[in-house]
Design a protein that fits this description.
The chain contains 13 helices and 28 strands. It is an alpha+beta fold and 595 residues long. β24 and β25 form a beta hairpin. The protein is globular, with a radius of gyration of 25 Å. 53% of the residues are buried.
Length: 595
């Protein structure tokens, strides 16, 4: 059975990432990109689906582990009766091919080590052909090849379609293992020195982290979240994956298992805010450029998500040979939600580009033409029902959050033209649309008897996304309708002191069986809402509780199960870490929004 989600840490090279467990096993790795097929897929099956474990003989879990300073270099320390050993895992920023490097270092005494490499391409389905070439163990199947070597040389042997190594390290000794992916038809790439690569990788991350401008309370948590967001960045394009994994469940044993290795447009505004506020203009610029490339084309074809390089086709299918994380099937690859109509994304795109201009990012010449085209399309579509923020697989509805974000789109378009009157655009029409949307939401999306905005027109169900109403400027924080909504969401969507997105048990809400945990991003939204409505102490208390949910290396998944006391959903989750950064900025008065 796979370890608890919170038992994992992430390493990465800004193009893909691996998950390393407390037992010393890399149980998830997709090569060469985040969304490539996994060669280690034990996370969603068992050891036969691929893993790479290095640990002391007869040891199950490490004593301690931590990232080395403000980097993504992971140190895992094992204490045994005969001595202490440290395994350092990292992925250097790549030149041509991805490398996973594991350095075993003796700290005291003498420790017997055991390594097991199980390579299975195509999500644990294809057993490669193994051979020896020039001091390497080489695994090849179809388009993939993986080369493994050690420095100094450690004898390796094959058995039962696995590769093993047994060796001993004494105090002061180091052994470096280098695993490199390459296309199978290419020649072996140049060797790299694992110890020199470690020094370079540490310097790269230290240089990047030193740019962080945030110096307030919770700096360690904020910087770790920014490092995690950076780790989920696909450097060649600037896109940011929502998570490094697919199909980690929102309910253990349930079917709410989705592929999150893609880029969601709705993360744009929050990501820009987090990165720029943290001092990372280069990443924000790259993300804005990715956004403009991804959404270019017919506005009617705008998608809610794209591939990490801007790909539009993300066909969803199931992988039957993987049993799923702790039996949570099906395992899904791709995401059919890419084809949904979600009107809120127009608001997110307009808001993110508005924020980019407000923060001083240089204007792109074609950006305004694109924004005009998006607004022309939205003017004719905003009155239609859609699948909404939460990508429901039930009937389309008039979701309140979607309408509010349509208002945001019109508002940001109007304000852009007011600030830059030489721009061309239908400003009078957008003003009229803004007023019409506002009036309709306040009439049809508000339950006066319960003093709360609802999930959709005519519904009694609530939606945590309505907590964003004051954040985006739709209504001021002291408006009684805002205060009532915060109280209602807090009372009706509470789960162990945190917040659910909505009530999945309600008939017909999302078209799926089962339930889910508390949604961490929504819980951070409640922090922001409590602070803005004049309850800073309650906001700070909730923020502290949320920080306590992070695992031992500061990482968060998508959700939290307060009954089992464990994390749920894909991991690490960008949306959760964006929420953490933005709430810290809110509580310290350093967050600016498009409102």
């Amino acid at each position: 059975m796979a370890a608890p989600i919170e038992d994992y840490a992430i390493i990465g090279d800004l193009q893909t990432a691996a998950l390393v467990g407390r037992d010393g096993s890399i149980d998830w790795l997709c090569l060469p990109r985040f969304d490539s097929a996994a060669c280690f897929a034990a996370l969603l099956g068992d050891r036969d689906n691929g893993r790479w474990r290095i640990a002391p003989v007869n040891s199950s879990h490490c004593a301690t582990r931590s990232y080395r300073g403000d980097t993504l270099v992971l140190d895992t320390v094992w204490e045994t009766p005969s001595g202490t050993v440290k395994v350092t895992d990292f992925m250097p920023q790549r030149d041509k091919a991805p490398d996973v490097i594991r350095v075993v270092e003796g700290i005291s005494g003498e420790v017997a080590m055991h390594a097991e490499l199980v390579l299975r391409f195509d999500y644990g389905n294809v057993v490669p052909w193994m051979r020896r070439i020039d001091g390497h163990r080489v695994a090849t199947a179809g388009p993939d090849s993986v080369w493994l070597r050690s420095t100094p040389n450690v004898p390796m042997y094959g058995q039962d379609m696995r590769t093993y190594a047994d060796f001993t390290v004494s105090a002061g000794e180091r052994v470096g293992f280098v695993l490199t992916w390459n296309v199978s038809h290419a020649r072996r790439l140049r060797r790299i020195d694992p110890f020199a690569a470690l020094d370079t990788c540490l310097k790269d991350w230290e240089t990047w982290s030193a740019q962080c401008r945030y110096e307030g309370p919770w700096r360690d948590a904020v910087l770790r979240s920014l490092i995690t967001l950076k780790a989920l960045t696909y450097a060649p394009s600037g896109g940011i994956a929502a998570a490094a994994t697919t199909s980690l469940p929102e309910e253990i044993g349930g079917v709410r298992n989705w592929d999150y290795r893609y880029c969601w447009l709705r993360d744009a505004a929050l990501t820009l805010n987090a990165l720029i506020s943290g001092g990372y203009l280069e990443e924000a610029h790259a993300w804005r450029d990715w956004l403009l490339r991804a959404v270019a084309g017919d506005p009617a074809d705008l998608q809610i998500m794209y591939g990490i390089a801007g790909e539009r086709r993300l066909p969803e299918y199931e992988v039957p040979w993987l049993a799923g994380y702790q039996g949570s099937a099906p395992v899904r690859i791709g995401n059919a939600a890419a084809g949904q109509l979600q009107l809120d994304v127009y608001g997110e795109v307009m808001d993110s580009l508005f924020l980019a201009g407000e923060r001083g990012l240089p204007a792109e010449g074609h950006a305004w033409n694109l924004q005009r085209a998006l607004m022309d399309f939205l003017e004719s579509k905003w009155q239609e029902p859609d699948e909404g923020l939460w990508e429901v697989r039930g009937p389309r509805r008039h979701f309140v959050h979607s309408k509010v974000m349509a208002w945001v789109a019109a508002d940001r378009a109007v304000r852009t033209m007011e600030a830059r009157p030489k721009l061309r655009g239908n400003v009078d029409g957008w003003r009229a649309m803004r007023a019409q949307v506002h009036a309709e939401v306040c009439e049809k999306g508000y339950d006066a008897d319960r003093t709360t905005f609802t999930q959709s027109y005519g519904s009694r169900e609530l939606d945590a996304a309505t907590l964003l109403i004051p954040q985006v400027g739709f209504l001021p924080p002291d408006d009684p309708r805002v205060v009532g909504t915060v109280e209602a969401v807090r009372a009706e969507l509470d789960l162990g002191g945190f917040v659910r997105r909505y009530s999945p048990e309600a008939a017909g809400v999302d078209g799926l069986p089962g339930t889910e945990g508390a949604f961490l991003a929504c819980s951070f939204w409640l922090v922001d809402a409590l602070h803005s409505t004049g309850r800073p102490k309650e906001a700070e208390d909730l923020f502290g509780k949320l920080l306590s949910l992070r695992n031992d290396v500061g990482l968060l998944a998508e959700e939290w199960d307060p009954v089992a006391g464990r994390q749920l959903g894909n991991f690490p989750q960008a949306f959760s870490h964006i929420g953490l950064v933005n709430s810290a900025l809110t509580l310290t008065g350093r967050r600016d929004t498009g409102a």
